[in-house]
Input
Amino acid sequence: MNDSYLEYPGRGYGQDHDFYDWRMVQKRPKLKWDGDTKVAVCLIVPLEFFPLNPSGSPFKHPGAMKTPYPDLRHFTVRDYGNRVGVFRILEALEAHNISATFAVDGEVARRYPCLVNRIGTAEHCIAVHGLSTDKIHHSGLTGDMEVAWIIEAEQSFGSEDYPSGFNDNPSGWMSPARNQSPRTLELLAARGYRYCLDWEMDQVPVTAQTGAGNITLIPNSYELSDFTLLHIRGQSGDSWLAQIGASIDLLLEEYARYGSQMLGLTLTPYVIGQPFRIRALRMLLDHIRDTDGVEVLTADAIDKQFREQA
Amino acid sequence: MKADPNLYDYWPYAGRPKIEWPGGKKLAFWVTPNIEFYEFLPPDNPQRRPWPHAVPNVQQYSQRDFGNRVGQWRLMELLDKYSLRGSVSLNVALCDHHPEIIEACVKRDWEFFSHGTYNTRYSYGLTPEQERAVLDDSIRTVEKATGQRIRGYLAPALTHTEHTLDLIAENDFWYSCDLFQDDQPQPLKTRSGKLVSMPYSLEVNDVITYSVMGFDPQRYTDILKHHFDQLLLEGERSGTVMCIPVHPYLVGQPNRLRRFEEALKYICAHSDDVWFATGKEIARHFTDNYWDQSLSDIRARGVATGGTGFNHE
Output
């Protein structure tokens, strides 16, 4: 092996990148959400289009087609989420007067403007979820190519018939497959994005610094995501619910010492939106309603309250 | 490449001479927090990519980072509550990145053993000289940060060469966590030294149970209790070892901490029969009292094959 393999240019105090500093939980300034909210829950609903002919570059999106072309089986299961599952989620949320954060990719925005419009007219917030599940940001792209993808994703929103475009610049971003190149955060900050949903290094938001300004990293839990627990790991809706309940309990228990914290939870329409699972979401929303100190906040609201204290 | 590592002799479990832990205890219990640093932009190793998809992987990187910022402290507090000292499986570069964690472990008299420099630097392809340099780095780095001379090794990300165990034995390490063939310690066939194969575990390792098998927190707790019950039962005949290898980025997640606590509470309620120890303490007790007994039993059974690791006679 080349001796350079045993050289460690990043070895030194703190992180091995410049986006944010090393900070332990006990050194963290206490956050306080508005009102008497001790634990904020951010519900993130990804709306994604999965092409029948993915390039698989630089890797296959975890939700991409799996069997030989034409993989109608996986295509239609994913599509079920955008046609049916998301409406079940909307109904459950709205029955509780709860606003969620919809991470919508450019393909969905362009293909189903009426869906984006439906979400936009309620009190939900919309983040851009990249251009497509087959346009994964990674180190091999040039900066120009990445910017072009970001702009194209933004421009996919809005049409004459369905005015689903953003009034201002979009405020939130989630990368396809939550993958980034080392320059993605800087490009997003330069486009005016205020927060990003790809990272999860803390139980609270963290400010990332880039050459083009700051962007808030709002944690989004992989280990509690419905896609991870219910889809990949085959756990039950009841177990998912119990684990989120246990998480809320722990964050409430830690409030006195560590202040307000948060959970970012993915609600994937083709996973939690299945008929046999949606009851777990309804039960979760009941539980949040019935538990003092816990509120669902949109990513926009979390970013705003966090920045007021940063 | 060899068909058989020849790192130890086949030694049937039934009828082995008795091991007794200090105080006549039946089971030696140790818990190993894996305190790790995964690099943001690690170099590629031709035999294994540092992140399976692409470099960087901000989701996975930041989840590991969560382990050090939040999960580690939750886990440490939990071990404090049950008066358990951790044996830290340490990526030693963490001494440079996050010395506060190291200081907190030292303050609690936890033991450190090496888990390589970074969990994103693998042993594959290293020459013996290069692997020696990695070991030397581990010994010096931990000694400087903690005053402790490390005696145990778990190869970084479980990546090995044919030389790994000979090299650690040569450097006066006492135990290896790299082998999973047994629930009792036993002598390893290295060219020099007295290196013990220490029961660690993949089966009850939180990475395997949570991430690979996809079990939920309650199931992991059930597994730990059943595992403990059986090893305690067998420990009556001859002392067994149970290790719980955990990772703060997994077990320190808010959905898992209290369920995991249930298992610790259960185990700690058996203090009459359990020796709560660190890796070094178990290895030392075994080597001082049972090394020769083990070798003579292996010889008496006619199962010894001679040679040393990757070097058959």
Remarks:
- Residues 29-307 of chain A form a domain with the TIM Barrel fold (CATH 3.20.20.370).
